[in-house]
Amino acid sequence: MTVVRHPLPTAPAGPRRLPRPPGRSCHCVALDLGGARTRAWSEGRGTLIDVPTVTSSGTGVPRGALTDVPGTARLLERLLGHRMPRLARPLVVVTTPVLDGPAHRERARAAVGVLHPRAVLTVPTARAVALAVDADLSRPLLVVDLGAHLTEVVLLVDGMVFDARRTALGTADLSGAATPADLREGVTAMLTSMLRQDRTPLTADALSRGGLLAGGGALRPDLTYRLTGGLEAPLRPVPAPHTAAVRGAALMLRSAHRHPSTGRNHERPAP
């Protein structure tokens, strides 16, 4: 189990709808490079793309990590290259697992380079999920992300990551020796650890309010039944939980488009 207890940088929050920014063309892309699925939203057509993720054939690779950068770049070029206007330099927002750290974010930026972006911003997946469902971020919020290879429990405070836990157990393991009960026990252990180590009332407040359940695993009734009914803290699956992260990233694009780091003074010549 991996732990972090400090806020991580994130892109600025945006409005809950994404109208085209006035007076300036915006070629924007939102990406969720998941362990099992790659999801992309293209501003030009409002198209949501959902395809299997390119995976590395190597061994000893951290579960859920983005390791095949060239393969991911080829996938993005095939999926999105023809959707970009000629010579366009899109603004890209990429969701990243909370506990994957700077190395993962750098690999994501490297893969996205194939689109010749003018800027690439990253946002924690849990924050993107919260934005996608218009969650109240003025109070502590728990987000449980059930992925194919990893499960993360994240506590957001004022929209920032305050605490997070991870277990190397996901829906892909359920075809083997693992069971839904194992996954429930893993989530319970992470929530219990967060509560015991928090010297503030923030975790307890979030637990009393309940949390959001997202990721592909939230589509499985056998999992949601055990997690929503077997935990002391109520969890509610978000609408379309498998695409919540990329939808939240898409909602962030308007404010990110106006952020100083994406302005013309920060552009680099296209390769």
How would you portray this structure in words?
With 271 residues, the protein is an alpha/beta fold. The chain has two domains: 11-127 and 244-261, Nucleotidyltransferase, domain 5; 136-241, Nucleotidyltransferase, domain 5, CATH 3.30.420. The chain is 31% helix and 23% strand. It has seven helices and eleven strands. It has helices at 69-80, 101-112, 125-132, 180-197, 202-209, 221-230, 244-258; strands at residues 2-4, 28-33, 37-42, 47-52, 91-96, 119-124, 141-146, 151-157, 160-167, 211-214, 235-237. The strands form two sheets. Strands 1-9-8-7-10-11 form a six-stranded mixed beta sheet, with helices on both faces. A five-stranded mixed beta sheet has the order 4-3-2-5-6. A hairpin with a 3-residue loop joins strand 2 and strand 3. The longest helix has 18 residues, at 180-197. The protein starts with a strand and ends in a 13-residue tail after the last helix. The model is unreliable at 1-24, 57-61 and 264-271 (pLDDT under 50).
Write the layout of secondary structure elements.
Layout: E1 2-4, E2 28-33, E3 37-42, E4 47-52, H1 69-80, E5 91-96, H2 101-112, E6 119-124, H3 125-132, E7 141-146, E8 151-157, E9 160-167, H4 180-197, H5 202-209, E10 211-214, H6 221-230, E11 235-237, H7 244-258
Parallel strand pairs: 2-5, 5-6, 7-10, 10-11
Antiparallel strand pairs: 1-9, 2-3, 3-4, 7-8, 8-9
Helix pairs in contact: 1-2, 3-7, 4-6
